[in-house]
C-alpha cells in the first residue's frame, strides 16, 4: 500500500520546486552581498537557508497528510479563526514596513499574516464551494455565504494598507469562483455587487489609496526617468540591471546595480539581478520553472474528479501565477510596483513557508489523482453476470 502511494507522488513538481528554491538561495546570497543594512554580507543568505529548512519540513507534512482532511469543519473553523485573529492582531502589535502595517515580530523573526491569509482563502473557498455543488447556482445558498469570509480578509489586508496583497487575494478568489461550477448569470451578478461595494469603499479610503507614495508609483510606472532620483529610482535602476545583463549576463556575483543602486535587490527586484548576472538564460530558467508549476497545477485540477481537490489545485496554481506576474510585471514596468516577492526565489520567510505548504498540498492532490487512476481501477469488482433468460431444458417424469 505505502509503496503504491509513494510511487504515485508527482516527483516532477518536487524536483522543480527544489531547483527553484536552491537557485533562489544562490541569488539571494549574490544579491545581498552589499546592502544598505549594517549586517554581515551573508546575513540574508543564512536567514534564507534557515527559512528553507523550515519550509522543507512543512512541505513534507503538507505532502503526506491527505488533503481531504482539510475539508472538515474541525480543520476549517480553527484555520478561519487563526487567520482573522492574525490579521486583526496587526493593528495592536504590528510593525510598519514599506508604509504598511504588515508584520508581527516574534523575537528575532517576523511573520506576515497576509501571506498565510492567501492560502486560507484558497482552502476555505475550495472546501465550501465543493460542498455546495448540488445547489451551486442558487445565489443565496450556494454563491454568497462563503464570500463574507473573503470580504473580511480583503478588508483587513486593504486597511493595513497593503493593496497589492489584497488585490492578489481578490484575484485568487476570483479564479476559484469562476472554476467552482456556478453559471455565468451568478458570476455577472457577483461582479456587479463587488463593483457597487468597491466604489463607496474607495471614497472612504481615498486618502490611503491616493496617497503621495502610491501616486508616485503610478508616475514612475509611466515614466521612471522623469524623476529618476526620487519616485522613479527603483524602476530606473531595475531597467539598468536588466539592460546590462543582455543575453549572457555579466556573470554570477558581478552585478553592479546591487552595489547600493537598486534597493531591495534580494527581495522585490531579485529578477533584475538575475537578468544582470545570468542574462536571458537565468531569467528563462525562472520563467520555465514557475510556468511549469502553474500549468502542472491546472492540469492536476482538470484531472481531479473530487471538486475539493480540483479547486485546491486551481487556486494554488493561480496564486503562484498571479504573484509571479505581479512581481515580474512590477520589476519590468508592465504594471505599477506593489512590493510582492517572487515565489521561491525572493528572500522572505513568510512567503517561502506558505508557498511550500501550498505546493505540498498540490503534490498531495496530484498523488491521490494518480493513485486513484492507476490502482483503484484495477481493484474494481467485475460485474456480476446477468442470468440468462433463455428457457431451460426441463425433463419431466411421467408416472406410469
From TrEMBL:
Listed GO CC annotations: cell division site; plasma membrane
PROSITE patterns per the UniProt record, alphabetical: FTSW_RODA_SPOVE (PS00428)
Compartments where found: Membrane
Reaction equations catalysed: [GlcNAc-(1->4)-Mur2Ac(oyl-L-Ala-gamma-D-Glu-L-Lys-D-Ala-D-Ala)](n)-di-trans,octa-cis-undecaprenyl diphosphate + beta-D-GlcNAc-(1->4)-Mur2Ac(oyl-L-Ala-gamma-D-Glu-L-Lys-D-Ala-D-Ala)-di-trans,octa-cis-undecaprenyl diphosphate = [GlcNAc-(1->4)-Mur2Ac(oyl-L-Ala-gamma-D-Glu-L-Lys-D-Ala-D-Ala)](n+1)-di-trans,octa-cis-undecaprenyl diphosphate + di-trans,octa-cis-undecaprenyl diphosphate + H(+)
EC number, UniProt record: 2.4.99.28
GO biological process: cell division; peptidoglycan biosynthetic process; regulation of cell shape
Disordered, as annotated region: 377-400
Keywords, ordered alphabetically: Cell cycle, Cell division, Cell shape, Glycosyltransferase, Membrane, Peptidoglycan synthesis, Transferase, Transmembrane, Transmembrane helix
One GO molecular-function entry: peptidoglycan glycosyltransferase activity
Coarse class of the protein's main subcellular location: membrane
Source organism superkingdom: Bacteria
Transmembrane segments: 12-30, 50-68, 75-93, 147-174, 186-205, 269-295, 307-326, 346-369
InterPro entries linked: Cell_cycle_FtsW-rel_CS, FtsW/RodA
Coiled coil: none
Topology relative to the membrane: Multi-pass membrane protein
Family note: Belongs to the SEDS family. FtsW subfamily.
Function statement: Peptidoglycan polymerase that is essential for cell division.
Protein name as it appears in the record: Probable peptidoglycan glycosyltransferase FtsW
Amino acid at each position: 500500500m505505502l509503496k503504491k502511494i509513494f510511487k504515485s507522488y508527482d516527483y516532477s513538481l518536487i524536483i522543480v520546486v527544489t531547483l527553484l528554491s536552491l537557485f533562489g538561495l544562490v541569488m539571494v546570497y549574490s544579491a545581498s552581498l552589499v546592502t544598505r543594512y549594517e549586517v554581515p554580507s551573508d546575513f540574508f543568505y543564512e536567514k534564507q537557508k534557515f527559512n528553507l529548512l523550515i519550509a522543507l519540513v512543512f512541505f513534507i507534512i503538507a505532502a503526506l497528510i491527505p488533503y481531504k482532511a482539510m475539508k472538515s469543519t474541525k480543520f476549517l473553523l480553527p484555520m478561519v479563526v487563526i487567520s482573522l485573529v492574525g490579521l486583526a492582531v496587526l493593528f495592536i502589535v504590528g510593525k510598519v514596513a514599506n508604509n504598511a502595517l504588515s508584520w508581527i515580530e516574534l523575537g528575532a523573526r517576523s511573520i506576515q499574516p497576509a501571506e498565510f491569509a492567501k492560502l486560507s482563502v484558497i482552502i476555505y473557498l475550495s472546501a465550501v464551494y465543493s460542498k455546495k455543488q448540488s445547489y451551486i447556482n442558487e445565489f443565496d445558498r450556494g454563491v454568497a455565504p462563503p464570500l463574507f469570509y473573503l470580504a473580511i480578509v480583503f478588508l483587513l489586508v486593504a486597511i493595513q494598507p497593503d493593496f497589492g496583497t489584497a488585490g492578489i487575494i481578490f484575484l485568487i478568489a476570483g479564479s476559484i469562483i469562476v472554476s467552482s461550477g456556478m453559471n455565468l448569470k451568478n458570476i455577472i451578478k457577483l461582479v456587479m455587487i463587488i463593483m457597487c461595494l468597491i466604489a463607496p469603499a474607495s471614497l472612504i479610503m481615498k486618502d490611503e489609496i491616493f496617497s503621495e507614495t502610491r501616486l508616485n508609483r503610478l508616475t514612475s510606472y509611466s515614466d521612471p526617468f522623469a524623476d529618476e532620483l526620487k519616485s522613479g529610482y527603483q524602476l530606473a535602476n531595475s531597467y539598468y540591471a536588466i539592460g546590462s545583463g543582455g543575453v549572457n549576463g555579466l556573470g554570477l556575483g558581478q552585478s553592479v546595480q546591487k552595489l547600493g543602486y537598486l534597493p531591495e535587490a534580494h527581495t522585490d527586484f531579485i529578477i533584475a539581478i538575475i537578468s544582470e548576472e545570468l542574462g536571458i538564460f537565468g531569467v528563462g530558467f525562472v520563467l520555465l520553472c514557475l510556468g511549469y508549476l502553474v500549468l502542472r497545477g491546472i492540469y492536476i485540477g482538470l484531472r481531479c474528479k473530487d471538486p475539493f481537490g480540483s479547486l485546491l489545485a486551481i487556486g494554488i496554481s493561480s496564486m503562484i501565477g498571479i504573484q509571479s506576474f505581479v512581481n515580474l510585471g512590477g520589476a519590468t514596468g508592465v504594471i505599477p510596483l506593489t512590493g510582492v516577492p517572487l515565489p521561491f526565489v525572493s528572500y522572505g520567510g513568510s512567503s517561502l513557508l506558505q508557498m511550500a505548504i501550498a505546493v505540498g498540498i498540490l503534490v498531495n492532490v496530484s498523488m491521490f489523482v494518480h493513485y486513484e487512476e492507476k490502482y483503484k481501477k484495477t481493484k474494481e469488482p467485475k460485474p456480476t453476470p446477468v442470468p440468462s433468460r433463455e428457457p431451460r431444458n426441463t425433463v419431466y417424469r411421467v408416472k406410469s
